Every structure is written in C-alpha cells, then in structure tokens.
Amino acid sequence: MSLFRLGSGSYHPSGSILQITALKNVVQIRTATKKVSGSKTNKNDSAGRRLGPKVHEGNFVKPGQIIMRQRGSKIHPGENVKIGIDHTVYAVEPGYVHFYHDPFHPLRKYVGVSLKKNLPLPTPHFAPRVRRFGYELIEDPSEAVKEEQHMSRKEYLYQPKLDELSKAREENKSNLLSKFNEFISKELSLELGAKDLNLTLERYYNVHELVKLKGMSVESAETQTTYNYVHSLKLAKARGDLSSEEFEDSLAHYHDLVDQLSKKITVDATGALTKYLSAEEKASRKDEIIEKLETEYSNRVLSIQDKIFVGDLIATPGVFDVAEREDLAKKYLPLVVPLTVPGSVIENIDARKPPKGVIVQRIFDEATRSTRVVGRPKEVFATQ
Amino acid sequence: MLSRISLRRFSVLGAAKAAQKAEVDWIASKNQWSYFNDESYVKRSESLKLNKPEIRESLLSNSSESGPASIENYSQRLAYHSPVAIDETFKMAYEMLETDAGLIYKNIDRFRAKLKTATDEKEIEFLKKTIDKLLVSAEISNPEVLYNATFNPASTLDMSQPVYRQLAKEKWESYDLMITMQRLEQLHVIPDTLPTLEPKVDVKVKFPHNLEEEFSSWVTPGEILPAYAVAQPPTIQIQEFDTVESKQLYSVLIVNPDTPDLATNSFSTTLQYGLANVPLDNVDNVIDTKKLLENGDKFTFKDYVPLVPEKNAQNQRACLWVFKQNGELSIGDVARENFDIRAFVETHGLNAVGAHVWRQHFDRSVETVREQYGLGKGRVFRRVRGTKPIIE
Amino acid sequence: MFNPFRPSTISGFPSGSVVLKTFVRGKRQSTQSASTKKVVNQLSALSASRKQPKLLNLCNEDLIKHRTIVNAWKMFKRREEQRRHNQLKKQYKSIYNAMEDLKQTSPKLFELANAKEEGKRFPLEMRVPTDFPPTQPWVYNYSPKKETK
C-alpha cells in the first residue's frame, strides 16, 4: 500500500495521518490513540539453554560426566566419549579432556578423554589402544566364592539340561567300556593289569569317539589319543606331580602298551573295536568280498535274505572304511534297482489288478519319448 | 574382395603361417588335457584329472542315456534333461581351449629350457614366476580342473599344482579372507597386537582333541570358545598360495592382549604359545598333532597354555599370528608375562603373513583347566565395573 | 512361458501379418476367448517376480560344460578384438608412413593435405569410413556433375 495518497489522509497503524497541504508539503499529525492489546510477534524468546562446554582442555572427568551441551554436533565425540540423544557429549572413562582434530575427518572438532594425563589425542592410527581394566578385585574369600558361583539366569536355567547330558554321556561311556572290556578279555584273551586295562579302555574309548563322531581316520584318531596322554603326562610333570624319571617311565610304558595293542586291536570305520588285520590280510579280505559280491549278488534282484547277507558282508568288521562301505552299498544295495537289471521289470501286466508282490510303475521311455506302465517286483525297492 | 586381400597377405606370411598351423595341428592331435605323466613333452600331473571316473566319463563324452553321473538318485537322474545342444557346443569349446592350452604348454617348454641354462638369480626368479603363470593359464579353463575345484572339498585338491592354488586363492579371497579381516579389525586385534596385516596365507585353526562336533571343526575367526575346548594346542593350517620350493620356515605366536594388570589398572600381553622354525610347503601345510608328537619339542619355544579368563574379567582375545621367516631363528628364553609382540617381531625380523583370533570368557570349565596346567585358583573381580582411573 | 499378448502362430495367420478389424457398432466385444481372458486375469493377480522364467538348475557336469563354453566364447571374442586392434594399428601405421612419405617428397602437398579448413566440422562429402578400401579406389575418368542452369 502506498503510504502517500493524494486527497484524503491515509491511515497509519501507529495512529498518525499524513496530510498533503495545498503547498504540497507533507505534514504528519498524531491523533489520540490507545493501544488495546500487544503485538503477536517477537514473543518467542525463551530462557537460555545453558549450552556450551562444561569442562575444559586438560580437566579431569569421571565416567558419565557431561563435557558439552550443544544443539547439533558442533563437537563430535572422540575417544572414550559418547554422544546422547540431544547431542550432549559425555565421558565414559575417567581421564583428561582433550579437544582435537582427527586426520580422518579434518573438518570436524572432536573431544576425547585421554586415560593418562600427558597422553595426546588422537591416538596414532597404528598404535595400540590405551585401555582401562576397571574391575576391582574381591579380597574377601567368602564373597569371592559367592561371586564365582553366581550364574546368569540363562546359565542357571540350563543346569538341569547340562546335568542330563553329562549323565547320558557317562552312561554311554560306561556301557561302551564294559563292551570293550568284554571284547578284550574274552575274544582276544589279553591279560592286562588293572592299570593297563584302564589305560587301554580309555584309549580305545577316545579313538572310538573320534572316529565315530568326527569321522576322523583311525590312524589320526590313534595319534591324537596318544598325544592326549603324552600331553597330560607333560602337564603332570610341569605341575610337579611326576618326577622326570617317573615321567620317562610312564611314557615308555605307554608306548610299549600302544605297540603291543596296535598289533592286536584296532577300531573299525564305525568306531567298533575289532581284531587287527595286517594290510595284506585286509586287502585279500577286500578282494574276496568284492569278488563274491560281483559274482553272486550283482545284476540281479535280491531277496530280503540276500540283502541282509550283502549288508553284513559290506559291514564285515575292520575291512572297509566308511567311503568304501557307502560305495559298495550304493552299488550292490541300490535304493531302486535299475531297469536294465534282468528280472526287475515285468511287462504286460494289468495295472488295475497287479499280481501280488508287484508294484505298478509308470516309467518314461527315452527312446520312444513316451510313458509306459510296467510292474516291478517288491524286492526291487530297498526296504526302509 | 576380402578373399583377394587375405590371399595376398597369405602369400607374404604363407610360410610362417603354414608352419604355425602345422604346429597347432600336431598339438591338437596330442590332446594336451588327456595326457598325464606321459612321455610326451608335457608332463601333467595325475591330479589334474577328474578324480571320479564315472563323472569324468559323463563330462567328457556325450551325455549318456542314463543321465549325468553326479546325480546320485536314480529317478532324479532319469528325470534330468540337459540344455539343448550343450554336448556339441561343449565339444567345440573343449577342442578350442585344448588347442590353446597346447600352445601355452609349448611356451612353457621353451621357458623351461631357458630356465635350465639361466644363471642370473633375477632371471631365474622371473622365469619361474612366468612358468607358474603359464601353468595356471594352461589349465584354468580345463573342465576337469574346474570340476575338481568347484565340487570337491578344498582339502582333496593337489596344492602343488599352481592352478589349484590359484582357484583356492580366489575362493579364499571371496569369503574367508573377508571374514578374517573383518574380525581382526572389529575386535581390534589390529592394532592392539600388531599395527596391521597384509594377508598372504590362509590360516585355519581347530582343536582336534574335542569330542564334540561343535568344537572340533575349524574355528570361525572371532568365535567364543569354552576353556575345555581349547585345553590342548590347536592344529594350525597355513595355506600358502605362491609356490614354495623346498621348505619355508614359519613362526606362530598366540598372545592374549587382555590379561588384567591390576598394578596399572590396565591390560598386559601374555604369550600363550610360541612356535618357530616350522618347515612347511604348499602341500605339507599343517601343524597337526602328529607333527607336535614327533618333533614338537624342536619348534616349540613356549609351551601352549590356554587362556583361562577369571570371573568377571570379560572377554579375552587369543590372537594368533603367523610369520614367514627369512632364515632359521634362535630364540632364547622369552618371558610369558608382559610380552611385547611388536619388539619380538622387530628383533627377529619376522614378516606377518596371516592371523586368526578366537575369544574366551569365564566359564565353568576354567577351574579344571587351571588345575591341569597348575595355574592355581583364579581371582574373582566385582561384577560392576568401577570408576578408578588408570594408575600411571 | 505363456504370453497371451504374443501373436500366435498356430491360429492360421502367419506371425507378423495384419488382421484388419471391422468396426462393429454397439457394445465393444473382446477378441480374446473366454479361456484366454481367464488366464490373463489370473496372471494379473500374480506379481512380476513370480512370472519370471524358472532358474535353470543345471547338474554339476552341465554347469562345468556351460562354463567351458563361456570360456571358449570369451577366448574367441578376445582374439577377434585383438585381431581388429592389430589391423587398426597397421592401418594407422600405413597412414602415418604415407604422410611421412608425402612430407619428404612434396612438403607443399603435405601442407595442403593438412591445411585446416575453417568452419568445417566434418567433411560431408567424405566417404563413410570402412575397414577395407573400395573395389575401385580411384575414379580416373571422373568429371564433376554439370550444373544445370
């Protein structure tokens, strides 16, 4: 709105009128007014928020102490310092405050807490961090025992389960050991002293577990078991439980025992204890079994008795390893006998009324690219 | 027009081309990739062959009626159908690549002859590197090699062959290396123990004495393990990807940078295990129980003591570092406590090539392990962290 | 993958031929059959990701065969590229040699040949560049077109 208007006076909110006289001079006349209410602007001022640094360069701070109150991150949190939801910067470790620049962010200002008085910040990039341990030692023995036995809720709730597991393991172990004991004393008729017997049983239990559970080779399982014993002897010697002569004696004795046993006992691919077979014996047994399988049990449909017999042959203790067993089982005891095997396909059957013991199958003929219905004897399929 | 020009060019280069063509023909007739340990001029290792004969058959000859041998289930095998014309295309591709490999082998032969007469050390090194590179490029597109490297476990590959090492390296870089470096950085193994690491070898760690499946396999870097699971020295595999001739000596350190030091209210570093002068190469690449049993005393300069964190002392890191040595080291008596790994590396001129880390905290098996190693009863700290500053 | 909008080749018309629609007054009738409409309707309810063609599941051998084929193709392409590169290099060299020759024999002509033509961004009368020279590289009895005026 133009302030100057010709003719009549113009109204001004402050209560004055501008008049233009005949001489074209502007004359201001103040009329009597009274302000009834205040203006709505410039009322937004609030008290100061007391922003700014609360501690200064080189001051000592405690954990949790506020270093800086700010709007936005004017100063970024550096080492041993964190930032709150309203950008309040506070210390997390006790130490000395340092304001610094970080070469990785050259435009930022940082504040950090140095754990030692004369340690500058930032810590060089490749230098080890300076860290505070902070946990205090419990001097009182009874309190220490109490604290040591304290469990988290999760650990506490797991205890019954853990007990159960260890109980089951113990039971399994004692069962196995008694079985092994029987095998050693009856089938091999080895006569060992109580101490040696115990050593032997423990040894083969460990080998069994390593082979069966972890699929380790028998040789490396035996090496590992020997190592375990030697290691425990070394530790006993280091503790002072054994003198060096006793250590040497026990070591020699154990090696003797192992030598003696290794020619008599071994562990199977499945972890079972068996008689030791020399390499030649093993090879000849292998050849024998494979030949038997090849001549008598291949390329024909096997009856259930035959299948059991073949399974037993493959699982002959101490002859084949796991991979070989799997291969043999795949070859001689397939899940489904291939269509090419004679006697495994019965042509021209009534699909609605198949004879007893015959299963109807629709098969895809690659040659004619069509499906046809055939019957297959029950024995073709592996029994689960 | 095109034929006219090529004819003209042929007249110039004719003789050379014909000779080259004859050579290509001769090499093609030799079927490079089908020769193993033969009397022919290239002696290829048997390990470059696909190790399962039935799969080799089904890969190299046309798909048979019975379907691919890699599918074990009979009905699935019957139901599988190969893409259209893959066999014919594959045959063409195979011939092309094989001919190319033949030319590369010819080159290798030339370099080998040069190597025999070379005397300058630098030249010898250059020739060896070149031969390795060529050996990789001659075999890297061989489908049998590809099959072995893709579908067989890495432990069964013959690491004396540069091509398998190259493929294993690619696999390592694509996952395991990244995991290792992430854990080393996030857990501050770097720079709390050593400033940094330029990884050159694949380091794997396992504790084979464990009977639980959970703890007996390879440890993922950064994993938290109970004390009983680490009660005996670990098996360490150090897979080198460059060619190692004869034996290279390595040293291995396990340090714990988180041992509480109450005198300063800070931490000190403890040496938990020290091995030096361990001879390894590309194939024989593992420090296992057998080696430790036979000649562990020869290269162990500090016996293994597992980490046994005390109650409320928080997580502790077992940082394993692998170093390449320039020569045989003689390490005297080293103190276990307050071990300065940086100074140790400096004085012995060691070159860090790989690292690994696992973590431990207090658990119920710590007490037993302490007893085994004769370490006495552990201290107990307050559950809540105090506010006392570091003592300078 | 069934695509209802693909011109069908079985319906009697060869693909690509135009079917002229005759105008029918009244309610618009769809040309699609009821079964097609049903399929279209059903497909519209499926998200695009479910209409993607199935991922090829190759057996191990075929995967390796596929990779081998890709390797061979890459090698072929690389060689082709290399050959082209060598050819261009040779062409450039011979151009360079010719110009050097010209420089030696007639500096004046060389100057003329290299004279900058102001205001000309690209000579419109220039032949499209080809890999090989034309069958008739030079027209000896060339006479410019007579202007008809």
Overall description:
- The complex is a heterotrimer of chains A (384), B (392) and C (149).
- Chain A is of the alpha+beta class and 384 residues long.
- Chain A is 38% helix and 18% strand.
- Chain A has a four-stranded antiparallel beta sheet with strand order 4-6-9-8, with no helix packed on it. Chain A has a four-stranded mixed beta sheet with strand order 5-10-11-7, with no helix packed on it.
- The longest helix of chain B has 32 residues, at 86-117.
- The N and C termini of chain B lie far apart (90 Å).
- Chain C has 149 residues and is mostly helical.
- Chain C has helices at residues 34-45, 60-105, 107-113.
- The radius of gyration of chain C is 31 Å and the shape is flat.
- The interface between B and C is medium-sized, with 30 and 20 residues.
User: What's the tally of helices of chain A?
Assistant: 8
Greatest contact between two chains? A-B, 54 and 54 residues
Structural class by helix and strand composition of chain A: alpha+beta
Structural class of chain C: mainly alpha
Shape of chain A: elongated
Measured on Cα atoms, how large is the radius of gyration of chain C?
A: 31 Å
| Strand portion of chain C | under 5%
Strand order across the largest sheet of chain A: 4-6-9-8
Task: Describe the secondary structure blueprint for this structure.
The complex is a heterotrimer of chains A (384), B (392) and C (149).
Chain A: E1 10-11, E2 16-20, E3 26-30, E4 52-53, E5 60-61, E6 66-69, E7 76-77, E8 81-83, E9 89-91, E10 95-102, E11 105-114, H1 141-149, H2 153-187, H3 194-214, H4 218-239, H5 244-262, E12 265-267, E13 273-275, H6 279-296, H7 304-314, H8 322-332, E14 358-365, E15 370-377
Parallel strand pairs in A: 7-11
Antiparallel strand pairs in A: 1-2, 2-3, 4-6, 5-10, 6-9, 8-9, 10-11, 12-13, 14-15
Chain B: H1 2-30, H2 53-60, H3 74-79, H4 86-117, H5 121-139, H6 143-151, H7 162-174, H8 176-186, H9 189-192, E1 201-206, H10 213-216, E2 235-240, E3 248-261, E4 266-280, E5 286-287, H11 289-299, E6 300-302, E7 316-324, H12 341-348, E8 351-360, H13 366-372
Chain C: H1 34-45, H2 60-105, H3 107-113
Helix pairs in contact in C: 2-3
